[in-house]
């Protein structure tokens, strides 16, 4: 089955990490095609179309290029536990997933300015701060109501997307002590079977 | 009271958990043992080996382990294990600086200058307290204290059953810690208090009057 799925993956890219993490947590195997977008276009990777940027998932004639859609698609596969897109909480999950995708775009742009340029500059983090504050307020109240996860009784694809936003916001200078509810929630996600790391997201912390 | 800083609500630091906090720009690791005693520790957030933040590390029983090379530190911050040299008896000179720490009124209090001087008036605060949450505010501690009517020397402001404390992780930013006494006057639910704290934060940050919001607690 894994041979039928191909993920074009760029290791340091935050959106690619969200997909890798989701695949790993959901226990889905996939053939990985490494891409280096820092190289000139002809050397990116065989099979990547002009103008495409990882992550790109190719599966059974479907070609998906947005991380939220890819996680949604994977969660709907018959061999994946239903909790990742719990039908009883589907709208809340998809709502937070969509929030997370926008937040990840915000993070990617700030992080790119901070790390991935010849002349890094401290990025403006106002938009990211607003996103994290909304997440923090939400999870503070969720915890008081006895919930561990953003949108459902168990971890969902929304938690995967939002975890990447929180975990890598440290790269643009967001300190963990300003988001205690998110720190607790992130600790829970790290403890799930299949959790995967990337540069900037170690095993602990 | 100025030397004792309220750095966290106790519900955010459970057995086996590690949290990095800052006090006036100084990085402090707060961690709780994963043992029946579950003692709380506050140390300088820096491994003496390579300077790694210990708050990135992990708790193993009654020891704190550094993420970088696994050095483990036990009571009073003394290094007890260097995994690359397990047979070595670690000299006492290898240790992390330990700070004074107290658990009181639902909050963790840290004194970076020693363990004494916890004020007598704090003993009159309620014992049976439910921690609610800590809220980040993008204004200095002085401005936040003014908004809630708290003198720095008092440590906490009580409005009915609700207790409020403030500390400054770094200049220009503050954390508002909210707790609620379980006995005594009826109090809002924790969820209602969380929303209240968010509204207070938004008012303080935008420079709007806070008297009406504070009046909700009376």
From TrEMBL, chain B:
PROSITE patterns: RIESKE (PS51296), RING_HYDROXYL_ALPHA (PS00570). Residues 5-110 form the Rieske domain. Keywords: 2Fe-2S, Iron, Iron-sulfur, Metal-binding, Oxidoreductase. It comes from the Bacteria. Pfam families: Rieske. GO terms for molecular function: 2 iron, 2 sulfur cluster binding; iron ion binding; oxidoreductase activity. Gene3D superfamilies: Rieske [2Fe-2S] iron-sulphur domain (2.102.10.10). This is Rieske (2Fe-2S) protein. InterPro entries: ARHD_Rieske_2Fe_2S, Cholesterol_7-desaturase, Rieske_2Fe-2S, Rieske_2Fe-2S_sf.
